[in-house]
Specification:
The protein has 337 residues and is mainly α. The chain has two domains: 68 residues; 264 residues, no CATH class. It is built from twelve helices and no strands. The longest helix has 41 residues. It is globular. One of its GO terms (molecular function) is NADH dehydrogenase activity.
Amino acid sequence: MDRTLDFYQFGFLVLKTVFIFAITLVHVAFTTYAERKIIGRAQARFGPKEVGPHGILQPLADFLKIFGKENIIPQSAYQPVFKIAPIIVFAFTAVNLTVIPFEQGFILADLNVGVLFILASASLAVYGIILAGWSSNSRYSFLGGLRAAAQVLSYEIALTLSLASVVLMAGSLKLSDIVLAQHNSLFGFYAIPQIIGFVVFVVAAFAETNRTPFDLPEAEPELVAGYLTEYSAFRYALFFLGEYTAMYIMASLAALCYLGGWTVPKYVMAILPFLKWIPGWVWFLLKVYLFIFLYIWVRATFPRYRFDQLLSLGWKVLIPLGFVNLFITILFKKLFA
């Protein structure tokens, strides 16, 4: 009887895993469509409009095109590492989906150290980019890999400091506990009392995911395509899947740690009681979409930073602000907890 129960539990876990990864990949595909449409409108263009109604099937056309292309591997590349690097990036990014609580109880692995798990996985994913740059045996790719290493080292410290303040306020590294602690707090979310940390987190999240204005590891005018220069076909696509999945991971982390996750503040619920009928996962997705829109909006608005400006912002502004915010949080907890 116990073996049968374990078998059904395992089967349910597999189905839930497949469902979450499938939904994420669908979101990634249509995020590329939304990004092209939004940026098109920002630049007084239409964006994709030929494939399907209003271009809605463009992601499918792009998928068929890129996976139908010839996979080219440079003769001078170190092939074993060249082939596995995109898999490292995507695997260590996608594994973070297992610890994201989409709603109360809807999570694959509710780890007690969920925040640390995501930070560790994000750190390991960058090794794929570094290895891709080195194994390509190209100057452009190698410089892109070095830039990625320096960028992640600089901004991961700021990201960790901002999340450390949230962990101190919630008293837990467990993401579901952080959401519930926000729901029981005065404001209902941490974005207001942790405004300094929230700003630091947002900027660091852009740099962690190599998004404009911090897309220096790619930087087309200087490095052709950076670490992507020698890649083609499905391996090229894996890097983009990893990048957009990382965007959703960071957006989810922002929603969970600063915007209350799947919950709505109690005072809002008291004023508008009908909101309790809206499922928690809907609120979670709306907050994630808000952050994804911010990613796209910033790309349409800001120019790329110079590399020295990028490092200067990280070490001279964000890291000191992170320490200041952490000190204020510790002082607040000591005096009022």
